[in-house]
Amino acid sequence: MMGGSVLNPRSGNRPRPVQAFVSGGFRLQTSAAKGRRAACGVRSVRMSVMEKERMAQDFKDVDTRVIGALEKLGSRRLTVADVSSVSGTSVQETEKELLLLSQLTGGKLEVSDDGDIVYTFDSNVRATLMSNSLRASIREQFEKAWPVIFYLIRISFGAFLFISILTVFAAISIISSSSSDRDRGERRGDYYDSGPGFGMGFFRFDLFDFFFWSSFQNTYYGPAPPKNELNFLEAIFSFVFGDGDPNRGLEDKRWRAVAATIRANNGAVTAEQLAPLLDPPEEGIKNQSETNVDESYVIPALLRFQGRPEVTADGDIIYVFPEMSKSGLNVDMVRDTRGQYIEEDEWEFSKGTGTQKFFVVALAILNLTGVVTLGGLLGNPAALRGTSPGLIATMQGLFPLLTAYAATYFTIPVFRWMWQSSENVQIRFRNSVRKAAASVRFGLTTIGTRPRSECRS
């Protein structure tokens, strides 16, 4: 430090040599003592910062798609483009997640011979992340438990249908019996033998028992159902709410295919090459001989993989993705996507069998009939004579819930069917356009294409 300088407060901005500043022994000793105290303070501050950073680290997590891509690629020297092409995440998002993962797991950042940044992680990166991040550990445990939790939700919703029917018709039976006993005591025990009387009470319970036991015997106590076939309680939930998005994960699949196409062409592609994987307009596929063709559907790919359009000497447009041409892999991990196109699955109303759907509708009608009848009794003071006030209060409190539950079996499926029918029309249209684009690009039909600079496909 002998050649350095420090700032003298009394002399303006002129620096003073270090040796002149430290010539006074007392001042040096005092400064040293202050320095020691300051160092202790800095150490305590650093400890506090480290503790806070550790607490913050516990609540950090990494996109599971990126972790899955690293596990698939193995412990190699990987670039952002390598991981992005397998995970389906954008270049920016992948880079952010890799930096965070490096911080949480001790990953290494190195420079390749080509001057690109490469990342190296342990082979068991998921376990390392779980041990270093509380949030990641909780997320991992929740993902393992969620299938069981959701299964319980589905069967609970179905089981409540039987509980609702039992509750409604038991209340109807008690109210009707109490009213009959007050007015005609001699017929107290004849309720179930009085023929149709109050809507065939004996038949209702017999029908309930038939549905209940047959469904449980076939599902739980009898032969196991075929693989992927719903049990009856699951079929009830499926009838009302459906079975989830049939195209779950389609976006990740789409972007992985787009990335593979870009990398297979060394980072330069035409719109026609990406059209089967994106959502091109129908007019652009049919009228590619025209000079002005709408290629705006390529923009999402440009933003996701940091691409840019360029014009060739022949006046054609190509899309260049410099980041996607970088790779730290020593083996060819690129998939061949020629002739492939993204195909969406149509929405299915329910995966339940025809027999299961019939029984669900029958039970729903039975339950709704019972709820309507119970509502009529609760609104008729004459019918409630002789009935326990506690039972009346309980049923009046439960009646809104029972009504809402009974209504879901008709309102939700009807609106869901209407929406799914409209959505399936759009899905069929998009699939046909992408299929036509694949046919045009790879010569599967006689439709011509607009001249383009040749790119490997």
From TrEMBL:
Keywords of the record: Membrane, Transmembrane, Transmembrane helix
Transmembrane among keywords: yes
Superkingdom of this protein's organism: Eukaryota
Keyword Membrane: yes
Transmembrane segments: 148-175, 358-378, 398-419
Name of the protein this chain belongs to: Iron-sulfur cluster biosynthesis family protein
Organism of this sequence: Rhodosorus marinus
